[in-house]
Protein backbone atom coordinates (compact mmCIF):
# COMPACT_ATOMS: atom_id res chain seq x y z
CA UNK A 1 0.00 0.00 0.00
CA UNK A 2 2.92 2.34 0.70
CA UNK A 3 4.18 1.87 -2.85
CA UNK A 4 0.69 2.64 -4.19
CA UNK A 5 0.52 5.88 -2.19
CA UNK A 6 3.92 7.01 -3.47
CA UNK A 7 2.91 6.12 -7.01
CA UNK A 8 -0.36 8.02 -6.66
CA UNK A 9 1.61 11.10 -5.56
CA UNK A 10 3.93 10.88 -8.58
CA UNK A 11 1.00 10.32 -10.90
CA UNK A 12 -0.83 13.31 -9.45
CA UNK A 13 2.15 15.61 -10.01
CA UNK A 14 2.79 14.23 -13.50
CA UNK A 15 -0.87 14.49 -14.56
CA UNK A 16 -1.11 17.97 -13.07
CA UNK A 17 1.88 19.01 -15.13
CA UNK A 18 0.57 17.49 -18.35
CA UNK A 19 -3.03 18.68 -18.10
CA UNK A 20 -1.91 22.21 -17.23
CA UNK A 21 -0.56 22.46 -20.79
CA UNK A 22 -3.84 21.67 -22.57
CA UNK A 23 -5.40 25.16 -22.49
CA UNK A 24 -2.13 26.95 -23.34
CA UNK A 25 -0.52 24.89 -26.13
CA UNK A 26 -2.90 26.04 -28.86
CA UNK A 27 -2.69 29.76 -27.98
CA UNK A 28 1.10 29.42 -27.65
CA UNK A 29 1.34 27.84 -31.12
CA UNK A 30 -0.91 30.57 -32.53
CA UNK A 31 1.35 33.22 -30.98
CA UNK A 32 4.27 31.66 -32.87
CA UNK A 33 2.34 31.97 -36.15
CA UNK A 34 0.88 28.45 -36.47
CA UNK A 35 -2.46 27.86 -38.21
CA UNK A 36 -5.20 25.35 -37.35
CA UNK A 37 -3.87 22.65 -39.69
CA UNK A 38 -0.34 22.96 -38.27
CA UNK A 39 -1.73 22.84 -34.72
CA UNK A 40 -3.57 19.63 -35.58
CA UNK A 41 -0.33 18.09 -36.86
CA UNK A 42 1.56 19.32 -33.79
CA UNK A 43 -0.90 17.69 -31.41
CA UNK A 44 -1.02 14.57 -33.53
CA UNK A 45 2.77 14.31 -33.81
CA UNK A 46 3.01 14.22 -30.02
CA UNK A 47 0.83 11.11 -30.06
CA UNK A 48 2.48 9.56 -33.13
CA UNK A 49 5.89 9.50 -31.45
CA UNK A 50 4.30 7.58 -28.60
CA UNK A 51 4.30 4.50 -30.84
CA UNK A 52 8.02 3.55 -30.79
CA UNK A 53 8.12 4.31 -27.07
CA UNK A 54 5.06 2.15 -26.44
CA UNK A 55 6.53 -0.71 -28.45
CA UNK A 56 9.75 -0.56 -26.42
CA UNK A 57 7.94 -0.12 -23.11
CA UNK A 58 5.84 -3.25 -23.56
CA UNK A 59 8.93 -5.47 -23.66
CA UNK A 60 11.27 -3.52 -21.39
CA UNK A 61 8.83 -3.01 -18.52
CA UNK A 62 8.02 -6.74 -18.36
CA UNK A 63 11.75 -7.53 -18.44
CA UNK A 64 13.27 -4.86 -16.19
CA UNK A 65 10.45 -3.51 -14.03
CA UNK A 66 8.82 -0.10 -14.00
CA UNK A 67 11.09 2.09 -11.85
CA UNK A 68 13.75 3.17 -14.33
CA UNK A 69 11.21 3.95 -17.04
CA UNK A 70 9.05 6.05 -14.73
CA UNK A 71 12.11 8.09 -13.74
CA UNK A 72 13.30 8.42 -17.37
CA UNK A 73 9.91 9.61 -18.62
CA UNK A 74 9.49 12.25 -15.93
CA UNK A 75 13.02 13.67 -16.09
CA UNK A 76 13.25 13.66 -19.90
CA UNK A 77 9.83 15.27 -20.30
CA UNK A 78 10.77 17.94 -17.75
CA UNK A 79 13.99 18.77 -19.59
CA UNK A 80 12.09 19.09 -22.87
CA UNK A 81 9.61 21.47 -21.26
CA UNK A 82 12.52 23.65 -20.17
CA UNK A 83 13.62 23.82 -23.81
CA UNK A 84 10.03 24.45 -24.92
CA UNK A 85 10.08 27.68 -22.94
CA UNK A 86 12.53 29.07 -25.51
CA UNK A 87 10.69 28.00 -28.68
CA UNK A 88 10.65 30.82 -31.26
CA UNK A 89 9.14 29.17 -34.36
CA UNK A 90 6.25 26.75 -34.89
CA UNK A 91 8.57 23.96 -36.04
CA UNK A 92 10.55 24.32 -32.79
CA UNK A 93 7.37 23.48 -30.91
CA UNK A 94 6.62 20.62 -33.30
CA UNK A 95 10.03 18.99 -32.75
CA UNK A 96 9.92 19.42 -28.97
CA UNK A 97 6.37 18.04 -28.73
CA UNK A 98 7.40 15.05 -30.84
CA UNK A 99 10.34 14.36 -28.50
CA UNK A 100 8.07 14.74 -25.46
CA UNK A 101 5.68 12.21 -26.96
CA UNK A 102 8.45 9.60 -27.14
CA UNK A 103 9.71 10.35 -23.62
CA UNK A 104 6.29 10.12 -22.00
CA UNK A 105 5.34 6.96 -23.91
CA UNK A 106 7.02 4.89 -21.18
CA UNK A 107 5.15 6.48 -18.27
CA UNK A 108 1.64 5.07 -18.62
CA UNK A 109 2.57 1.40 -19.31
CA UNK A 110 5.14 1.46 -16.48
CA UNK A 111 2.75 3.01 -13.94
CA UNK A 112 -0.21 0.81 -14.86
CA UNK A 113 1.94 -2.32 -14.78
CA UNK A 114 3.36 -1.44 -11.37
CA UNK A 115 -0.08 -0.73 -9.94
CA UNK A 116 -1.52 -3.98 -11.30
CA UNK A 117 1.46 -5.96 -9.96
CA UNK A 118 0.90 -4.77 -6.38
CA UNK A 119 -1.69 -7.53 -5.91
CA UNK A 120 -2.67 -10.85 -7.48
CA UNK A 121 -6.32 -10.42 -6.48
CA UNK A 122 -8.57 -9.08 -9.25
CA UNK A 123 -10.79 -7.15 -6.84
CA UNK A 124 -7.79 -5.41 -5.27
CA UNK A 125 -6.37 -4.67 -8.71
CA UNK A 126 -9.67 -3.04 -9.60
CA UNK A 127 -9.42 -0.82 -6.52
CA UNK A 128 -5.91 0.23 -7.46
CA UNK A 129 -7.09 1.13 -10.96
CA UNK A 130 -10.00 3.11 -9.54
CA UNK A 131 -7.51 4.95 -7.35
CA UNK A 132 -5.45 5.68 -10.46
CA UNK A 133 -8.53 7.15 -12.10
CA UNK A 134 -9.37 9.28 -9.07
CA UNK A 135 -5.82 10.65 -8.84
CA UNK A 136 -5.80 11.38 -12.57
CA UNK A 137 -9.12 13.18 -12.31
CA UNK A 138 -8.17 15.18 -9.22
CA UNK A 139 -5.10 16.45 -11.03
CA UNK A 140 -7.08 17.32 -14.15
CA UNK A 141 -9.69 19.21 -12.09
CA UNK A 142 -7.31 21.96 -11.00
CA UNK A 143 -4.50 21.81 -13.57
CA UNK A 144 -6.16 23.36 -16.68
CA UNK A 145 -7.34 26.42 -14.77
CA UNK A 146 -4.00 26.56 -12.90
CA UNK A 147 -2.06 26.42 -16.17
CA UNK A 148 -4.10 29.26 -17.66
CA UNK A 149 -3.60 31.30 -14.46
CA UNK A 150 0.17 30.74 -14.46
CA UNK A 151 0.37 31.89 -18.09
CA UNK A 152 -1.60 35.00 -17.20
CA UNK A 153 0.87 35.79 -14.41
CA UNK A 154 4.22 34.50 -15.73
CA UNK A 155 3.81 34.21 -19.50
CA UNK A 156 4.47 31.16 -21.67
CA UNK A 157 8.18 30.84 -20.91
CA UNK A 158 7.68 31.07 -17.16
CA UNK A 159 4.88 28.51 -17.27
CA UNK A 160 6.82 25.92 -19.25
CA UNK A 161 9.88 26.42 -17.04
CA UNK A 162 7.82 25.93 -13.88
CA UNK A 163 6.14 22.80 -15.22
CA UNK A 164 9.48 21.42 -16.44
CA UNK A 165 11.17 21.76 -13.06
CA UNK A 166 8.12 20.17 -11.41
CA UNK A 167 8.43 17.08 -13.64
CA UNK A 168 12.17 16.81 -12.98
CA UNK A 169 11.60 17.03 -9.21
CA UNK A 170 8.91 14.34 -9.47
CA UNK A 171 11.32 12.06 -11.36
CA UNK A 172 13.94 12.47 -8.62
CA UNK A 173 11.33 11.59 -5.98
CA UNK A 174 10.39 8.48 -7.96
CA UNK A 175 14.05 7.44 -8.13
CA UNK A 176 14.32 7.16 -4.36
CA UNK A 177 10.80 5.89 -3.62
CA UNK A 178 9.67 3.40 -6.28
CA UNK A 179 10.89 -0.20 -5.69
CA UNK A 180 13.29 -1.65 -8.23
CA UNK A 181 11.21 -4.79 -8.74
CA UNK A 182 7.46 -5.25 -8.71
CA UNK A 183 6.13 -6.92 -5.56
CA UNK A 184 4.25 -9.56 -7.57
CA UNK A 185 7.46 -10.62 -9.29
CA UNK A 186 9.31 -10.81 -5.99
CA UNK A 187 6.56 -12.92 -4.42
CA UNK A 188 6.23 -15.26 -7.35
CA UNK A 189 9.93 -15.60 -8.09
CA UNK A 190 11.35 -16.52 -11.48
CA UNK A 191 11.40 -20.26 -12.22
CA UNK A 192 14.47 -21.47 -14.02
CA UNK A 193 12.49 -23.58 -16.43
CA UNK A 194 9.09 -22.75 -17.81
CA UNK A 195 6.62 -25.40 -18.95
CA UNK A 196 5.84 -25.41 -22.62
CA UNK A 197 2.58 -23.63 -23.34
CA UNK A 198 -0.32 -25.83 -24.31
CA UNK A 199 -1.63 -25.63 -27.83
CA UNK A 200 -4.68 -23.35 -27.76
CA UNK A 201 -7.98 -24.92 -28.67
CA UNK A 202 -10.13 -23.53 -31.50
CA UNK A 203 -12.34 -21.88 -28.88
CA UNK A 204 -9.29 -20.33 -27.24
CA UNK A 205 -8.03 -19.00 -30.58
CA UNK A 206 -11.47 -17.52 -31.26
CA UNK A 207 -11.54 -15.86 -27.83
CA UNK A 208 -8.05 -14.38 -28.41
CA UNK A 209 -9.10 -13.00 -31.79
CA UNK A 210 -12.23 -11.51 -30.18
CA UNK A 211 -10.24 -9.93 -27.38
CA UNK A 212 -7.91 -8.15 -29.80
CA UNK A 213 -10.91 -6.32 -31.20
CA UNK A 214 -11.27 -4.48 -27.92
CA UNK A 215 -8.03 -2.62 -28.60
CA UNK A 216 -10.05 -0.62 -31.12
CA UNK A 217 -12.08 0.81 -28.24
CA UNK A 218 -9.26 2.96 -26.81
CA UNK A 219 -8.40 3.99 -30.38
CA UNK A 220 -11.82 5.50 -31.08
CA UNK A 221 -12.13 6.94 -27.58
CA UNK A 222 -8.72 8.60 -27.84
CA UNK A 223 -9.67 9.94 -31.28
CA UNK A 224 -12.67 11.69 -29.78
CA UNK A 225 -10.61 13.10 -26.92
CA UNK A 226 -8.02 14.39 -29.38
CA UNK A 227 -10.78 16.14 -31.32
CA UNK A 228 -12.00 17.78 -28.10
CA UNK A 229 -8.56 19.01 -27.04
CA UNK A 230 -8.01 20.38 -30.56
CA UNK A 231 -11.35 22.12 -31.04
CA UNK A 232 -12.14 23.47 -27.58
CA UNK A 233 -9.23 25.97 -27.38
CA UNK A 234 -9.83 27.07 -30.97
CA UNK A 235 -13.52 27.68 -30.32
CA UNK A 236 -12.64 29.86 -27.33
CA UNK A 237 -10.12 31.97 -29.29
CA UNK A 238 -6.57 33.02 -28.52
CA UNK A 239 -7.70 35.09 -25.53
CA UNK A 240 -9.88 32.34 -24.07
CA UNK A 241 -7.23 30.40 -22.14
CA UNK A 242 -8.94 30.94 -18.80
CA UNK A 243 -12.37 29.90 -20.12
CA UNK A 244 -10.82 26.82 -21.75
CA UNK A 245 -9.13 25.88 -18.49
CA UNK A 246 -12.38 26.30 -16.56
CA UNK A 247 -14.30 24.15 -19.07
CA UNK A 248 -11.71 21.37 -18.86
CA UNK A 249 -11.83 21.55 -15.07
CA UNK A 250 -15.62 21.19 -15.21
CA UNK A 251 -15.18 18.06 -17.32
CA UNK A 252 -12.79 16.66 -14.73
CA UNK A 253 -15.25 17.46 -11.94
CA UNK A 254 -17.85 15.43 -13.81
CA UNK A 255 -15.44 12.49 -14.00
CA UNK A 256 -14.70 12.81 -10.29
CA UNK A 257 -18.41 12.74 -9.47
CA UNK A 258 -18.83 9.28 -11.01
CA UNK A 259 -15.43 7.88 -9.99
CA UNK A 260 -16.40 8.48 -6.36
CA UNK A 261 -19.57 6.36 -6.76
CA UNK A 262 -17.97 3.06 -5.81
CA UNK A 263 -21.25 1.13 -6.06
CA UNK A 264 -21.03 1.49 -9.85
CA UNK A 265 -18.27 -1.12 -9.78
CA UNK A 266 -20.90 -3.71 -8.88
CA UNK A 267 -22.54 -3.26 -12.28
CA UNK A 268 -21.49 -5.33 -15.24
CA UNK A 269 -18.58 -3.80 -17.18
CA UNK A 270 -20.63 -4.42 -20.33
CA UNK A 271 -23.38 -2.14 -19.10
CA UNK A 272 -20.98 0.54 -17.89
CA UNK A 273 -18.95 0.68 -21.09
CA UNK A 274 -21.94 0.69 -23.44
CA UNK A 275 -23.78 3.35 -21.41
CA UNK A 276 -20.68 5.55 -21.09
CA UNK A 277 -19.91 5.40 -24.82
CA UNK A 278 -23.48 6.33 -25.70
CA UNK A 279 -23.50 9.20 -23.22
CA UNK A 280 -20.20 10.56 -24.55
CA UNK A 281 -21.44 10.32 -28.14
CA UNK A 282 -24.60 12.26 -27.26
CA UNK A 283 -22.53 14.94 -25.52
CA UNK A 284 -20.42 15.47 -28.64
CA UNK A 285 -23.55 15.57 -30.80
CA UNK A 286 -24.96 18.24 -28.49
CA UNK A 287 -21.78 20.31 -28.78
CA UNK A 288 -22.01 20.07 -32.59
CA UNK A 289 -25.74 20.64 -33.12
CA UNK A 290 -27.06 22.61 -30.13
CA UNK A 291 -24.72 25.54 -29.62
CA UNK A 292 -27.25 27.30 -27.37
CA UNK A 293 -26.73 24.78 -24.56
CA UNK A 294 -23.96 25.91 -22.16
CA UNK A 295 -20.74 24.09 -22.99
CA UNK A 296 -19.87 23.79 -19.30
CA UNK A 297 -22.93 21.63 -18.58
CA UNK A 298 -22.26 19.39 -21.58
CA UNK A 299 -18.59 18.94 -20.66
CA UNK A 300 -19.54 18.11 -17.07
CA UNK A 301 -21.75 15.29 -18.36
CA UNK A 302 -19.03 14.21 -20.77
CA UNK A 303 -16.59 13.94 -17.87
CA UNK A 304 -19.12 11.96 -15.84
CA UNK A 305 -19.35 9.44 -18.68
CA UNK A 306 -15.54 9.20 -18.81
CA UNK A 307 -15.49 8.47 -15.08
CA UNK A 308 -17.70 5.45 -15.70
CA UNK A 309 -15.85 4.28 -18.81
CA UNK A 310 -12.17 4.20 -17.90
CA UNK A 311 -12.27 2.03 -14.73
CA UNK A 312 -14.30 -0.56 -16.65
CA UNK A 313 -11.77 -0.51 -19.48
CA UNK A 314 -8.94 -0.93 -16.98
CA UNK A 315 -10.54 -4.16 -15.75
CA UNK A 316 -10.72 -5.35 -19.34
CA UNK A 317 -7.01 -4.91 -20.01
CA UNK A 318 -5.98 -6.41 -16.68
CA UNK A 319 -7.93 -9.55 -17.61
CA UNK A 320 -6.33 -9.59 -21.06
CA UNK A 321 -2.86 -9.31 -19.50
CA UNK A 322 -3.06 -12.33 -17.21
CA UNK A 323 0.03 -14.52 -17.29
CA UNK A 324 2.76 -11.96 -16.64
CA UNK A 325 2.22 -9.87 -19.75
CA UNK A 326 0.72 -6.75 -18.19
CA UNK A 327 3.46 -4.57 -19.67
CA UNK A 328 2.71 -5.74 -23.20
CA UNK A 329 -1.03 -5.42 -22.65
CA UNK A 330 -0.87 -1.86 -21.39
CA UNK A 331 1.65 -1.10 -24.11
CA UNK A 332 -0.83 -2.20 -26.79
CA UNK A 333 -3.52 -0.14 -25.09
CA UNK A 334 -1.22 2.89 -25.10
CA UNK A 335 -0.38 2.29 -28.77
CA UNK A 336 -4.08 2.26 -29.64
CA UNK A 337 -4.63 5.47 -27.68
CA UNK A 338 -1.58 7.10 -29.26
CA UNK A 339 -2.82 6.29 -32.76
CA UNK A 340 -6.21 7.70 -31.87
CA UNK A 341 -4.75 10.84 -30.32
CA UNK A 342 -2.77 11.34 -33.54
CA UNK A 343 -5.63 10.70 -35.95
CA UNK A 344 -8.22 12.77 -34.07
CA UNK A 345 -6.57 16.23 -34.13
CA UNK A 346 -5.17 15.71 -37.64
CA UNK A 347 -8.60 14.79 -39.05
CA UNK A 348 -10.24 17.65 -37.17
CA UNK A 349 -7.67 20.13 -38.49
CA UNK A 350 -8.17 19.02 -42.09
CA UNK A 351 -11.99 18.79 -41.98
CA UNK A 352 -12.77 21.73 -39.71
CA UNK A 353 -13.83 23.87 -42.66
CA UNK A 354 -16.38 21.28 -43.84
CA UNK A 355 -17.90 19.71 -40.73
CA UNK A 356 -17.89 20.33 -37.00
CA UNK A 357 -15.04 18.39 -35.32
CA UNK A 358 -17.46 17.51 -32.55
CA UNK A 359 -19.61 15.64 -35.07
CA UNK A 360 -16.51 13.65 -36.09
CA UNK A 361 -16.10 12.64 -32.44
CA UNK A 362 -19.77 11.63 -32.30
CA UNK A 363 -19.35 9.32 -35.31
CA UNK A 364 -16.19 7.79 -33.81
CA UNK A 365 -17.88 6.94 -30.52
CA UNK A 366 -20.93 5.49 -32.21
CA UNK A 367 -18.54 3.31 -34.22
CA UNK A 368 -16.96 2.17 -30.95
CA UNK A 369 -20.39 1.09 -29.70
CA UNK A 370 -20.78 -1.06 -32.81
CA UNK A 371 -17.65 -2.99 -31.76
CA UNK A 372 -19.43 -4.39 -28.74
CA UNK A 373 -20.75 -7.96 -29.19
CA UNK A 374 -24.52 -8.29 -29.57
CA UNK A 375 -24.81 -10.73 -26.67
CA UNK A 376 -24.35 -9.29 -23.22
CA UNK A 377 -23.12 -12.61 -21.79
CA UNK A 378 -20.24 -12.84 -24.26
CA UNK A 379 -19.18 -9.27 -23.52
CA UNK A 380 -19.39 -9.84 -19.80
CA UNK A 381 -17.26 -12.98 -19.92
CA UNK A 382 -14.74 -11.34 -22.25
CA UNK A 383 -14.22 -8.45 -19.89
CA UNK A 384 -13.85 -10.20 -16.57
CA UNK A 385 -15.03 -13.75 -15.91
CA UNK A 386 -16.94 -13.97 -12.66
CA UNK A 387 -16.56 -10.28 -11.88
CA UNK A 388 -20.10 -10.03 -10.55
CA UNK A 389 -20.17 -13.39 -8.84
CA UNK A 390 -20.60 -13.57 -5.03
CA UNK A 391 -16.94 -14.63 -4.68
CA UNK A 392 -15.76 -11.53 -6.55
Structure description:
This protein is mainly alpha-helical and 392 residues long. Helix content is 79%, strand content 0%. The chain has one domain: Growth Hormone, Chain: A (Up-down Bundle), CATH 1.20.1250.20.
Brief account:
The protein has 17 helices and no strands. It is mainly α and 392 residues long. Its main location: membrane.
Helices and strands: which structural class? Answer: mainly alpha
SS strand fraction: under 5%
Query: How would a crystallographer describe the biggest sheet?
Result: none
Overall pLDDT confidence: 76
Tell me the number of helical segments per DSSP (H or I, 4 or more residues long).
17
Which second-level CATH architecture applies? Up-down Bundle
> In CATH, what is the class?
Mainly Alpha
Distance between the termini: 21 Å
Instruction: Give the low-pLDDT segments.
Output: 184-201, 203-210, 375-392
Rg, rounded, reads 20 Å
Bulk shape: globular
Q: In CATH, what is the homologous superfamily?
A: MFS general substrate transporter like domains
The beta-strand count equals 0
Report helical residue fraction.
over 70%
Q: Might you state the CATH topology name?
A: Growth Hormone, Chain: A
Keywords:
392 residues, mainly alpha, Growth Hormone, Chain: A, 0% strand, globular
Write the topology of this structure.
Layout lengths: L1 H18 L2 H10 L4 H13 L1 H15 L2 H18 L5 H15 L2 H10 L5 H56 L5 H6 L13 H12 L2 H21 L4 H19 L9 H21 L5 H26 L5 H26 L5 H14 L5 H8 L9
Subcellular location: Cell membrane
GO cellular component, one term: plasma membrane
InterPro entries: MFS, MFS_dom, MFS_Efflux_Transporters, MFS_trans_sf
Amino acid sequence: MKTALWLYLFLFLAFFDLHAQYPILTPFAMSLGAGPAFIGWMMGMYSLTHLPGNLLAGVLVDKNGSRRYIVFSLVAAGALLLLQAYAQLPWHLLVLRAASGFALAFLSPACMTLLASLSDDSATQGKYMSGHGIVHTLASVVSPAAGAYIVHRAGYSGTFSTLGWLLIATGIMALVSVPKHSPARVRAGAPKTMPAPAEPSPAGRKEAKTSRRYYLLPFFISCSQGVLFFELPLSQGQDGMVSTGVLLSLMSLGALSTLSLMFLNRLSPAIRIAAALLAMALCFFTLAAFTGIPAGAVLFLLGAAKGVLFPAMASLFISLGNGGHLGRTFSLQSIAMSLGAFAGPVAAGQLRGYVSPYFIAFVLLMTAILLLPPKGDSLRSAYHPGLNSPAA
